[in-house]
Amino acid sequence: MKMKQYPLAKATLFVTLSAVTVVGYLFVLSVLRGKLGAFSNTVPAMLVATATLVLNWRFLKSEGRSLVDLGFDRPVFRIGQTAAGFLAGSLLVGSWALVLRFVASASWHAAPPVVPRAALGAVLFVIFNNAGEELVYRGYLFLLLARAYSRIAAVGVTCILFTLLHVQAGVPLAAAIAGVLTSSLVFAALFVRWQSVPLVLGFHAATNILQELLGLRTSALTAFVPALDGNAGKSPSYTVLALTGLINVGLALAIFVSARTRARKTQ
């Protein structure tokens, strides 16, 4: 019998091949470690983004579909969507910073001067790394699960997988639940509403880039460092994490409601 009759098997194969690309990424990363300077992480991330794009193309093609189903068409329009997503993602991080400011009495001071080449490498890494993530979690796999089971199943499975990946990478469980899981709900909601990987990528990249810029995550892009009421370097309190998670969940629910309302109007 044809494999297309077994969506779970196709989903498993897609996830397995995606995992193989991650192993390949880690291998290339170890080989290139430090050899390309500021771009040592960028090149492996580019390879992952390319590999996951090809995976999506091949799996979609096997069903008579194309990358258009993921929002890869009308370049000018999609570039505009990416920019809009980046702006919206930046505003979301701004709301997180406000929570940190008013709940934890955080203040920001300038970090050591950013090295342009290193900063560019950090930005490119975020973009390509996020592209790979979005193509895995908000690409073909999401469409397959939504069609074969339900949108709720697609959201649940992809968000859990996304969160587990970050936990495995070393993100503390509390931060993973309050930050990663709830952020992935926003990414999923955006994809449900607009079915555009470029839009979600712009939003996702903004959340990471702005976090690094504001020192919420440290990288070569960090221009400002937060100090929590004289206790710089300490982890944000559970209250901050909880409020941040609530903001994300509220935004995700608003987008899901918008998507449902739009679907009803087009019926």
Helical fraction: over 70%
Strands of the largest sheet, in order across it?
1-2
Task: Tally the helices.
Answer: 9
Summing up helix and strand content along with how strands pair, one would put the structural category as mainly alpha
Oligomer: single chain
- H-E order: HHHEHHHHHEH
Number of strands: 2
The domain count comes to 1
First-last Cα distance: 34 Å
Binned strand content = under 5%
- Kindly state the mean pLDDT as a whole number? 92
Computed over alpha carbons, the radius of gyration is: 19 Å
Instruction: Describe the global form.
Output: globular
Enumerate the spans where pLDDT stays under 50 for 5 or more consecutive residues: none
Major sheet summary line:
2 strands, antiparallel
